[in-house]
């Protein structure tokens, strides 16, 4: 799997900007790491990967001057290969009971076998039972000096405040489209594969800010030889330009035919509408002169959208956004997926 093959092995490999990686490097550089951390954020944003890199940093034999790992010493290699005795990874979804945490408490007293520190990564920590959390709290109150806890969660609100107050909490943000696109470009280069920037951007948007989802989608495209449009359910920017032109011209027939042709091609109309909304949002920024640093498209597409914005007022773009936002919310519950969009088109073209 690409997300394993191209998983960052050093802090320097983690997509920038990344405040969490920088903060952790500074702690390692200043020799002041915490004994317990909580990493929270959406799935696929690098929590477990960062936890493993931090585990390396706590045990690396040849740290560089900035606090990053060498990725070459015995400890780094062992962690990379998954056979480092002093890195214990626990899946709280399947080891959530008090007996599992009691077993951890008994073993944590033992000194590290081969490394400098014992590191416990507890994934999906919010899945622990109340009793298990209470048992974990006892350990966090007086942890052995040779141990470090890294608790990873997608649902920070389910982690008790008593746990959070004894940890340094780092919040992971969804990756931006440019961050994901840069990563996908690097993977394509390694795989000797050429995809257009537009296709890479579609994959980045479809992954909803998750590196892992983006890597998996890219692998499906490369190894399965499938088109990005069919996989993501999105159309090209040119498609949306043509469709919006139909709306501006109040050509309901061609606009409805366009939607039905899109549906017949097997596209997910809900995903297609989300991308249309994103296109209209960018068009709104351009037509109101507020696109600087906000609109994330290529120069060629930006020029195309600027020309289209000259044909349409900001008020009309707002109208389109409101109408299609409502239609998009109705698609999943509609017996006929095209119907909410068809009604929306008739209303927009009739105004």
UniProtKB/TrEMBL annotation:
<comment type="similarity">
    <text>Belongs to the DnaX/STICHEL family.</text>
</comment>
<comment type="function">
    <text>DNA polymerase III is a complex, multichain enzyme responsible for most of the replicative synthesis in bacteria. This DNA polymerase also exhibits 3' to 5' exonuclease activity.</text>
</comment>
<comment type="subunit">
    <text>DNA polymerase III contains a core (composed of alpha, epsilon and theta chains) that associates with a tau subunit. This core dimerizes to form the POLIII' complex. PolIII' associates with the gamma complex (composed of gamma, delta, delta', psi and chi chains) and with the beta chain to form the complete DNA polymerase III complex.</text>
</comment>
<keyword id="KW-0239">DNA-directed DNA polymerase</keyword>
<keyword id="KW-0808">Transferase</keyword>
<dbReference type="GO" id="GO:0009360">
    <property type="term" value="C:DNA polymerase III complex"/>
</dbReference>
<keyword id="KW-0547">Nucleotide-binding</keyword>
<dbReference type="InterPro" id="IPR003593">
    <property type="entry name" value="AAA+_ATPase"/>
</dbReference>
<dbReference type="GO" id="GO:0046872">
    <property type="term" value="F:metal ion binding"/>
</dbReference>
<dbReference type="GO" id="GO:0006261">
    <property type="term" value="P:DNA-templated DNA replication"/>
</dbReference>
<dbReference type="GO" id="GO:0005524">
    <property type="term" value="F:ATP binding"/>
</dbReference>
<dbReference type="InterPro" id="IPR022754">
    <property type="entry name" value="DNA_pol_III_gamma-3"/>
</dbReference>
<dbReference type="InterPro" id="IPR027417">
    <property type="entry name" value="P-loop_NTPase"/>
</dbReference>
<dbReference type="InterPro" id="IPR001270">
    <property type="entry name" value="ClpA/B"/>
</dbReference>
<feature type="domain" description="AAA+ ATPase">
    <location>
        <begin position="33"/>
        <end position="176"/>
    </location>
</feature>
<dbReference type="InterPro" id="IPR050238">
    <property type="entry name" value="DNA_Rep/Repair_Clamp_Loader"/>
</dbReference>
<keyword id="KW-0862">Zinc</keyword>
<dbReference type="Pfam" id="PF12169">
    <property type="entry name" value="DNA_pol3_gamma3"/>
</dbReference>
<keyword id="KW-0235">DNA replication</keyword>
<dbReference type="GO" id="GO:0003677">
    <property type="term" value="F:DNA binding"/>
</dbReference>
<protein>
    <recommendedName>
        <fullName>DNA polymerase III subunit gamma/tau</fullName>
        <ecNumber>2.7.7.7</ecNumber>
    </recommendedName>
</protein>
<dbReference type="GO" id="GO:0003887">
    <property type="term" value="F:DNA-directed DNA polymerase activity"/>
</dbReference>
<dbReference type="InterPro" id="IPR008921">
    <property type="entry name" value="DNA_pol3_clamp-load_cplx_C"/>
</dbReference>
<dbReference type="Pfam" id="PF13177">
    <property type="entry name" value="DNA_pol3_delta2"/>
</dbReference>
<keyword id="KW-0479">Metal-binding</keyword>
<keyword id="KW-0067">ATP-binding</keyword>
<dbReference type="InterPro" id="IPR012763">
    <property type="entry name" value="DNA_pol_III_sug/sutau_N"/>
</dbReference>
<keyword id="KW-0548">Nucleotidyltransferase</keyword>
């Amino acid at each position: 799997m690409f997300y394993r093959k191209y998983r960052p092995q050093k802090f320097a490999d983690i997509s920038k900007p990344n405040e969490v990686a920088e903060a952790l490097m500074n702690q390692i550089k200043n020799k002041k790491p915490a004994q317990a951390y909580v990493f929270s954020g959406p799935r696929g944003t690098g929590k477990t990967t960062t936890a493993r890199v931090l585990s390396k940093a706590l045990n690396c034999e040849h740290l560089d001057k900035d606090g990053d790992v060498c990725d070459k010493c015995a400890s780094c290699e062992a962690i990379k290969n998954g056979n480092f005795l002093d890195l214990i990874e626990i899946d709280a979804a399947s080891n959530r009971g008090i007996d599992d945490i009691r077993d951890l408490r008994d073993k944590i007293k033992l000194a590290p076998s081969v490394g400098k520190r014992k590191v416990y990564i507890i994934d999906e920590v919010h899945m622990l039972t109340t009793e298990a959390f209470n048992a974990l709290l006892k350990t966090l109150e007086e942890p052995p000096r040779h141990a470090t806890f890294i608790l990873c969660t997608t649902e920070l609100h389910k982690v008790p405040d008593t746990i959070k107050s004894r940890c340094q909490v780092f919040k992971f943000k969804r990756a931006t489209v440019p961050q994901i696109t840069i990563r996908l470009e690097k993977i394509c280069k390694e795989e000797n594969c050429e995809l257009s920037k537009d296709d890479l951007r579609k994959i980045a948007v479809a992954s909803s800010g998750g590196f892992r989802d983006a890597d998996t989608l890219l692998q499906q495209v490369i190894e399965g030889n499938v088109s990005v449009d069919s996989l993501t359910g999105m159309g090209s920017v040119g498609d949306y330009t043509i469709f919006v032109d139909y709306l501006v011209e109040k050509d309901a027939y061609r606009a409805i035919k366009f939607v039905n042709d899109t549906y017949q091609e097997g596209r997910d109309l809900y995903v297609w509408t989300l991308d249309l909304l994103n296109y209209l949002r960018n068009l709104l920024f351009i037509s109101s002169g507020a696109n600087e640093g906000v609109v994330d498209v290529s120069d060629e597409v930006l020029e195309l959208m600027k020309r289209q914005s000259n044909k349409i007022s900001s008020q009309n773009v707002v109208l389109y956004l409101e109408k299609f936002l409502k239609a998009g919310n109705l698609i999943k519950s509609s017996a006929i997926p095209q119907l909410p969009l068809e009604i929306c088109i008739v209303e927009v073209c009739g105004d």
